[in-house]
Queue: 3 jobs
Job 1
Amino acid sequence: MIVCSCNVLSDAQILATLKLGATHRAAGTAYRCLGCAPRCGRCLETVRSLLEQAHVENCQVGCADCPAHQHPHTGEHEPVETPALMAAE
């Protein structure tokens, strides 16, 4: 699915940047890895959601980059709500 129409980037290309060693990265970093930058910005929310969803799916609770919010009183983890993905127009 094309998520950035300005740069014609697919979700697979964005996710492939995660294979470069980082378990989680910012949208801007993913674009830089692909040799471009966001132009109009309409895709940024979708790209961020895509990267966050991939991180959550690959995360082990308790790791250094754990996306779970630690409950301040019990120390138990609460899951993060992942926004739905939307394709760029």
Job 2
Amino acid sequence: MFEQFKENLGLARDNANAARAGLRSAREAWREASPAKRQVWLLVPATIVIIAITDHFSIPWYYDAAALVLVVLGSWMRAAIWPSSSSKP
């Protein structure tokens, strides 16, 4: 049983190292991404969250679509009003 515990600790350590390396590469990719790519990367989780909320509360599909349109328009307006802020990490 002690051997299994040691193996589990080793696997947990390997998993933590892999997660740490993944976070480092994600930060580097974010810094190197263009503003348009960053907007898409933020739009995808926003879409998932909006769909999850509307499904949970049984909101009609057209409110879902309207919320997505507002998120996209807000993102474009933010980029148009503050173009330098979208290029900062």
Job 3
Amino acid sequence: MQTFITIAQIIISIALAVAILLQQRSAGGVGLLGGSSGGGYYRKRGFEKILFTSTVILSALFLISAFLNLVI
């Protein structure tokens, strides 16, 4: 069981790193602080929305697997 969780955690971490690196650089925190990154409200659409959602899901899975790896 320990080996399975460790392998799953490695796979999830690689997928999470790829998902983070694929996101646009201009979508960072500069726009949240009032910087000039296009201004106004911006709604995610298409591939950007799928990528954002998958990043959130992968990060949650990584946290769960890390907790399970710690407990078991």
